[in-house]
Amino acid sequence: NAGVMQNPRHLVRRRGQEARLRCSPMKGHSHVYWYRQLPEEGLKFMVYLQKENIIDESGMPKERFSAEFPKEGPSILRIQQVVRGDSAAYFCASSPRQGLRDTEAFFGQGTRLTVV
Amino acid sequence: DQQVKQNSPSLSVQEGRISILNCDYTNSMFDYFLWYKKYPAEGPTFLISISSIKDKNEDGRFTVFLNKSAKHLSLHIVPSQPGDSAVYFCAADEYDTDKLIFGTGTRLQVFP
User: Fold this and answer.
1) What residues does A94 pair with on adjacent strands?
2) Is residue B93 less than 8 Å (CB to CB) from chain A?
3) Is B40 on the interface with A (CB under 8 A)?
4) Using one digit for the tens of pLDDT, what is the confidence trace for B6-60?
5) For residue B81, what pLDDT band results from cuts at 50, 70 and 90?
6) Which among A42, A100, A105 is the nearest to B105, CB-wise?
7) How many of the other CB atoms lie within 10 Å of CB of A45?
8) N or C: fewer beta carbons within 10 Å in chain B?
9) A101, A104, A111: best mutation site toward chain B, by most B Cβ within 10 Å?
10) Which residue has the higher pLDDT, B41 or A88?
């Protein structure tokens, strides 16, 4: 949904560089979810954040990945020292309430990360 | 372990006919199910959902059926239209968790 803005849409990084993916939720949405889709797979949950808080990061790799959702500005998914296996489409979703069952929850168009 | 499975990677249906997309799950704690439609280079778009207390939910051309004893749900699209050509994902949610579990998707092609 065009209301959830992700940028960049495409990102190319060399192995070892850092990748920063941004997600601006819809107006009035304070809940943000990040998902990753590897080639030929479904979306996999990574992290759930509310403003300034990480609520559930059980899907995040333990190393190199971090996420934040500051009081002001977009949510950021940061991947340090990228490897080829990080190449994927990263989607964020926002919701006015907890959970994605809400019909007012929407996904962004995604950022396609390619590590070369 | 894949808790939500879509065993048909692709489906081809003639325009005007019924499309039936299937989804199986293993976790009996799932209590809510959703279907998403995804076009290339776009994010998933919510299509229809069903609570585990129901066995059917209908919205226009789209109907979702849930068979809890078989841990199976299906999405029916009648009549199918060329604009329905996309990848369809089934997703499941467990009460009081914050994450959807997605299947691997079924690519539907509707031809004239």
Assistant:
1) A32, A106
2) yes
3) no
4) 999 999 999 999 999 999 999 999 999 999 999 998 999 999 999 999 999 999 9
5) very high
6) A42
7) 21
8) N
9) A101
10) A88
